[in-house]
Amino acid sequence: MMGMCRPCLFLPPLLLLVLALKHHDGAKSKSADCFCQLSGGLDDCSCDIESIDDFNNYKVFPKLENLLQKDYFRYYQVNLKRPCPFWRADGHCSIRDCHVHPCSPNEVPQEIKGDEHSKYFEEANKMDIEDCEDESQLGAVDNTLSDQSKKAFIDWARHDDSLDSFCEADDETSPDMEYVDLLRNPERFTGYKGASAARVWNAIYEENCFKPRSVYRPLGAQGWHSCAGQDDGESFYEWLEGLCLEKRVFYRLISGLHSSINVHLCAQYLNEGVYGSHWGPNPQEFQQRFDPLLTRGEGPRRLRNLYFLYLIELRALSKAATYFQRPGLRLYTGSGPTDADTKAFLLGLLNLTLSFPMHFDETSMFCGDGQAVESLKEQFRLHFKNISRIMDCVTCDKCRLWGKLQTQGLGTALKILFSEREILSLPVRGSSQYFQLTRQEIVALINAFGRLSTSIRELQNFKDILEKTS
């Protein structure tokens, strides 16, 4: 069975290096047996970390870095004012770096700010072009639409509501929707922490990862520095390995997302220096979050879940190639040459994902008795959808922006993975009533994978920094 990567067999080169430095100082790790080998395959799949590192850092990352500069992928529409549906939020983050700078009315290409209904017509298949006029009218319906166009929009919106969505999407008709230039609002350390941040991650892990409250996670959510529970964490992993494959996958996806976010914050940290502050990598912060000695062995396990999440989204992109290869599909921004160039770059990336020989095998999930499988899949979907709603409880706007985007991106990947028949039956031209990706989903999917690719690239960067300072 391919796909499952157990958390404690082999480590990325970075963690071996950190361990070696610690042992050089005379320190001993309780879980040293887990860190004794660098080479070897991952359990339950035909992948290994070294191959992923090489594939990502030298092939995928450069392509993604270029693709995400394109106008189609840099503008994301989001509502950062939705109230938390689960508890009374404790105010917004007052830290300067929590702020998000929305686009001005003239910043986003007019064609991207077009009508949502346009994507459903074969004439252009323009892929979810939203309505944007000014900040007070973002997301408003264009009253000049024809009755036929309005009906087409409403009919498709109703169908979208009935899809097996893994995320609760923002209401695109809300006046609080605004466009954000992702290049001007990069994900980085904001200083957001404390009770508010801990409450969000605790709600995600404790209430949505199929975990009973009697089972304690080895580390608390806030900072990953302190231990929760009295044992060494092994009872948690004994419980985890006793779960069915699907529930283990769910936990590792969330853990991998958490790990990736923390890598970003360490890589883009506001460092104080003699000549002022600057953004850049903070190896000390990285070690605090991932060093096996400082995290009681948890850091490496969570980084391994990052690699697992990367494989999941990589597999989804490879399966989506058929969808994007259709000649009638356009990534529409209004400029024919630019649009053709953007699609060519995207297809180059997708063709590259198809060449990866060690993909996650999603067919090992949700197989067996029909009724039981459908019930489990629905639980899986609703738990993840609930996590997408928790993102509205994040009180740092920049953290909320990137949390919502990466959650929607992963939700879109899951939607793709479990829609194989619908994708294979797509018409060559025009839309399908059985499977469709909105522009929001496409932008989130590619940017979310870009975040994972960046995380793995940053692990190599931290390794190089630690080598120079050893």
Quick rundown:
The chain has 470 residues and is mostly helical. Helices cover 49% and strands 4% of the residues.
Instruction: Indicate the proportion of strand residues.
Output: under 5%
Shape: globular
Average of per-residue pLDDT values: 79
What is the string of SSEs from the N terminus onward?
HHHEHEHHHEEHHHHHHH
| Ends apart, CA distance between termini | 40 Å
Order the strands across the largest sheet as they lie in space.
1-2
Detail the poorly predicted runs. 1-40, 115-145, 149-162, 221-229
C-alpha Rg, in Å?
22 Å
Biggest sheet architecture: 2 strands, antiparallel
Number of strands: 4
Number of helices: 14
Q: Helical proportion?
A: 40-55%
The assigned structural class equals mainly alpha
Commentary on this structure:
It is built from 14 helices and four strands. By secondary structure, the chain is mainly alpha-helical. A two-stranded antiparallel sheet has the order 1-2. It has a two-stranded antiparallel ribbon with strand order 3-4. Helix 2 runs antiparallel to helix 10 (336-354) and helix 7 crosses helix 9 (298-324).
Helix-strand blueprint:
Blueprint: H1 13-24, H2 49-67, H3 71-74, E1 75-79, H4 147-162, E2 177-181, H5 195-208, H6 234-241, H7 245-267, E3 269-273, E4 276-280, H8 283-290, H9 298-324, H10 336-354, H11 370-390, H12 397-417, H13 420-424, H14 439-469
Antiparallel strand pairs: 1-2, 3-4
Helix pairs in contact: 1-14, 2-10, 2-14, 5-11, 7-8, 7-9, 7-14, 9-10, 9-12, 9-14, 11-12, 12-14
